[in-house]
Amino acid sequence: MPVPILLVTGFLGAGKTTVVNHLLAHAEGRRIAAVVNDFGAINIDAELIAGASDGVVSLANGCICCSLEGDLLRTLSTLLRRDPKPEYIVIETSGVADPADIVRNLMDPVILREAPLETVLCVMDATAPPAALDDALHRSQLRVADIVALSKLDLAEEGSGSRMREAIRAQRVPAVVVDANHGEIPAALLFPANVDRAPASREPGPRRPTEERFETLSWTSDRPISLSRLQQAINRLAPRLARAKGLFETVEQPGRMMVFQFAAGRATLAPGEAPAPGAPRSRIVFIAELGVLSKAELDGAMEACVAE
Predict the structure, then answer these.
(1) Within this chain, do residues 262 and 172 fall inside the same structural domain, yes or no?
(2) Cα-flanking dihedrals φ and ψ of residue 184, to 5°?
(3) pLDDT above 90: residue 302
(4) What is d(CA 254, CA 6) in angstroms, rounded to the nearest whole number?
(5) Containing structural domain, residue 254
(6) Do 74 and 168 lie in a common domain?
(7) Whole-prediction pTM
(8) Is the pLDDT of residue 113 over 90?
């Protein structure tokens, strides 16, 4: 029986990983394979999804998670050979990826026969200004969506959700728009009961030249970080950062790993899992527009955060 694919797209920091984590945590007996297409040398997203690490891992509810490295067909083929094979495959794209290219790859007849693309979900940050949709990448992510999920409504100012809905409607996309409080989306929308029906016909549009717009700068250390110094460093770097995420131990709470997230000008910390064997104690990935932040400047700012 074919295994339907749910493709999750959305811009940097929109909340895609939160949505995927909620799906896995509330799988209700479904065998779900989660595939992460991260952007950068350190695959933080694979670790943040249900505690995944080391590329491929068995999860508590029978799900699996792997990073999307190399050929998509090879990755999906590996998943479909598992025994038992998954009932659904969830692919989380990078926040800087044009999903049209991934949709085009998934239209390959070999993939379509074994793993048809069932649903494209675009996660949109409700705290973002409607002008964000003027960005070509945002529009491309919306254009291929069947469902648009508004995230971070609890953080948005009053009326922001309504303004974003109006901005989405102005793009004339046929997608259904739903609220996704804390990553929660009705499972019936994402996992239709009738999985035997033929997949919808999709036309991702003409292939466009790839534009190198973002770059990642990675930083690692085997020593804990001073949280107060990190706050100062992020405040200085924030105007030039599109996104940052990482895992580290702090001087203030030795022996306890923390998950760091920076998006849309906001930084958050949450408890994290112990690092994989051999992984640095502190590692952060920074994403910025090309050329606005040098590696030397970033390393200097972060080294100043390391405990003496």
Answers:
(1) no
(2) -85, 125
(3) yes
(4) 39
(5) 214-303
(6) yes
(7) 0.74
(8) no
Average pLDDT, the chain: 81
**Which residue, 120, 48, 58, is CA-closest to 84?**
58
> Does residue 208 belong to any structural domain of this protein?
no
Cα–Cα nearest to 87, from 63, 54, 111, 55? 63
Distance CA 40, CA 220 (A): 13
- DSSP-assigned beta bridge partners for residue 219: 284
**C-beta atoms surrounding 59 within 10 Å:** 18
Residue of 86, 93, 95 lying closest to 125 (CA atoms):
95
Whether the Cβ atoms of residue 288 and residue 240 lie closer than 8 Å to each other: yes
Q: How many domains does the chain have?
A: 2
Q: Decide which of 190, 224, 251 is a domain's last residue.
A: 190
81-104 burial, b if ≥16 CB within 10 A, otherwise e?
eeeeebbbbbbbbbbbbbbbebbb
Contact 66, 75 (CB under 8 A): yes
120 contacts 145 by C-beta, under 8 angstroms: yes
pLDDT in tens, 51-62: 444 344 444 445
**199 is a domain residue:** no
Q: What is the pLDDT, as a whole number, of residue 82?
A: 84
Residues in the chain: 308
Tokens found for residue 120: 């494209």
The Cα–Cα gap between 56 and 50 comes to 12
* For residue 164, pLDDT beyond 90: yes
For the cut 80, the answer to whether the pLDDT of residue 40 exceeds it is no
Place 98 in a pLDDT band, splitting at 50, 70 and 90: confident
Around Cβ 69, how many Cβ atoms within 10 Å? 15
Preceding omega of 84 cis (within 30 degrees of 0): yes
